[in-house]
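Researcher: Structure prediction, please.
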Amino acid sequence: MAAKEDRRASIKLTQVDDLFLTEDGRADAQREKVMDIPLAEISEFPSHPFKVNVDEAMLEMAESIKQYGVLVPGLVRPKSSGGYEMVAGHRRMKASELAGMETIPCIVRELDDDQATIIMVDSNLQRENISPSEKAFAYKMKLEAMNRQGQRTDLTSRQIVGKLESADIIGRDVGESGRQIQRYIRLTELTPSILEMVDDKQIAFNPAVELSYLAEKEQQTLFETMQSEDCTPSLAQAQRMKKLSQDGRLNVDVIFSILTEEKPNQKEKLTIKGERVDRFFPRDFTLRQKEDLIVQLLESWYRRRQRDQER
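Model: Predicted structure follows.
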């Protein structure tokens, strides 16, 4: 009897309304639609790696939304606890809020965590002026999502040709090598204070990658030394600190010693403008001849000075 009731429960009867739907009508019912969703019902994507700054561009977007509305709908997914989660459209959501709007047009789509992560990253990587830290955390999130999917691409509308690693696939989409993607992801190992210096272009990308191998305590010591001495490491210095850290020989004194070395590009150079000395040389003198003569005269002056001091 129980088995018979289970079979009955599994039978789905066609609704009366469905009997009168045409094929086009059924397709339209399945098609995604744009809905106006209250801003209060939309939360941000968890650990969203892209900054939503209220800058001049944001204020311009808000003014445009006041006049014309949101021209490109956002993409949200429903939350099991109620409401929606923004997948693509965080800047439009913020601009709508600044414009005094109560709703924003969105496409509602059922997505699992990995699908949503990949779409969120891909949609934001189209923006200009993305900071190194934003790329670093975005690439890391996408790489982890792809690895959980087992590199399935049917969920992202892309086709894999050959056996590509996840990092290579990400790199192919953004015009970078897989190795470069992995180097960006290394930046997520930097402490926030040093990573901020990378974003502010105080530390170059290549040295920053090397510094990411330092332990957290070593990075904190490095940051404090950079602040007190007002200097940053070159690539060669960062590589030496990485090696010393791996050998267990990096400490505050070593960091100070390395950072306070005179770098080749920091050595002062003596430059004499041509118009100041050209009148002392024949017109047919080359630059090398002028330099040689200046050095000879200085040597003669130096020897004479030495003799005068010995008297």
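Model: The longest strand covers residues 103-108.
Researcher: Thanks, that helps.
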